[in-house]
Amino acid sequence: MSTKLKAWISAARLRTLPLSISGILVGSAYAYLQISFQNKEMMEIRNNNLFCCFCFDRYFDYLIPVLALITTLGFQVLSNFANDYGDGVKGTDNEDRVGPMRALQSGIILAHEMKRAMIITAVLTLISAIALIYVSLGIEQLLISLFFLVLGIAAIWAAIKYTVGDNAYGYRGLGDVFVFIFFGPVSVMGIFYLITKAVDWNMILPSITIGLLSVAVLNLNNMRDIESDKKAGKNTIVVKMGSMKAKLFHYTLITIALVTASLFFINLYYKEVMDENMTQPSLFMFLPLLAFLPLFLHLKVVELNKVPALLDPELKKVALSTFAFALLSVLSVWIVS
């Protein structure tokens, strides 16, 4: 493999991709579960009413989550390219940086090459987003389709403006807000709606869980880079509040994520208990909570940490725990449905 190709793969930051698709997996899983529940209800109605001619089963269109995954991966790669470009041209990525060397920082990829890659990735991602909206909503639901199109354009803008430009919001401590919004509610509730064509406000709970865990990854990244960010004038929330308060913020993020996830599964469990048409409720619904077990040890590591550079391995732990939550959600839905 050539040095140039390795640099491009490094710039895409493959280790960030599982975290980016976690919200899509969670939203898709519980959309599938809702459709499964609705089909069971329809079957019960047909069994009790032989003259019911308008009780049609709904089907789960697998093309929608596939396109959503492709689109989300496009957004994440675009964000990674833009982050590399923005921090590279501003000089934030320098010898003081703790994490792995970035592509522009190494000099293997030039600024104009990264800018061209950003444009190509943005165009391809927008095409994928349009395909997703068309497959899900068509032109019949024009206003809703336009809303999701605007949402897609906003996501592309957010991916680029995190570190690029004079008013990059990542340099003003707003990165956490955008990560929460796009990784959480937009991702989870967005794909849920595109699949089911319905809004279920209970889905705000897992969307908060995924959003907060994603912010926790960013918070760890900023805790690790606090000294180099200070020197470069990158005023992240961690830089503004200091290391001690950043740790408290981190504990709060993961604690609330656990609480919202627990509330979601309790509500889901008792919803099935109260529905006479459903089969015996299953404790497998709570399976995704196992993903939080490694995070208890992680919080202890963060509490005892005195050297920010040593937090780098912890990013992977939180990201993989979030991905595990998503995979266990898919598994639990497969078992329950």
Inertia-based shape: globular
Q: What is the string of helix and strand elements?
A: HHHHHHHHHHHHHH
Strand proportion, as a percent range, falls in: under 5%
Summarize the biggest pleated sheet.
Answer: none
Report how far the terminal alpha carbons are from each other.
Answer: 44 Å
> Strand tally, please?
0
Overall pLDDT confidence = 86
Topology:
Elements: H1 3-12, H2 17-48, H3 63-90, H4 103-106, H5 111-137, H6 142-161, H7 175-183, H8 185-196, H9 204-224, H10 226-232, H11 237-241, H12 243-274, H13 293-304, H14 312-336
Helix pairs in contact: 2-3, 2-8, 2-9, 2-14, 3-5, 3-6, 3-8, 5-6, 7-8, 7-9, 8-9, 9-12, 9-14, 12-13, 13-14
Summarize the structure.
With 337 residues, this protein is mostly helical. It is built from 14 helices and no strands.
Structure overview:
Helices cover 72% and strands 0% of the residues. The chain has 337 residues and is mainly α. The longest helix is centred in the N-terminal third of the chain and has 32 residues. The protein is globular.
